Amino acid sequence: MKKILFVMVGLFLLVTLFGCSSSPKTPILTEGKFQVVKDGLTELQDIGIFDKISYIDEGIVWVKSPFYLLSFEDKTTFAVAVYLYCQHENVDISMLFLRDYLINKDIGTYTEVRGLRLD
Predict the structure, then answer these.
(1) Residue 21's pLDDT is what?
(2) CA spacing 20 to 30 A to 16: which of 9, 29, 69, 71?
């Protein structure tokens, strides 16, 4: 649990300090910042928060059971970090879908304008 808290605090600071771009066509992370986000997400994946991320046609993250135990603030920080990661890899992405790993159904979305919306 302490490891989750440590990673979430790091991602929160990164998201707070660097935020999101107002232009979805502009890469919003330098390579250094991107590596910090990628490392944080790798740690969260290793401890079971999510399974995988896709950014081919649309941003999708498949979340696992421990994701549901996070506070709404931590879920938002996580969604922003994944969104930044996806947008860095594919600048055309303007929405992130959060999908349950077990049932393969969307459980929410994240956009810069509307923020995190959970079903």
Answers:
(1) 44
(2) 69
Domain, as residue range, for 23 = 2-118
Burial 7-46 (b: 16+ CB within 10 A, else e): bbebbbebbeebebeeeeeeebbeeeebebbbebbebbee
Tally of domains in the chain: 1
What is the CA 61 to chain-centroid distance, rounded? 7
pLDDT single digits (tens) 13-29? 555 544 544 444 444 67
Instruction: Note the Cα 110 to chain centre separation in Å.
Output: 9
Strands 96-100 and 115-118: unpaired
* Residue-level pLDDT at 67: 95
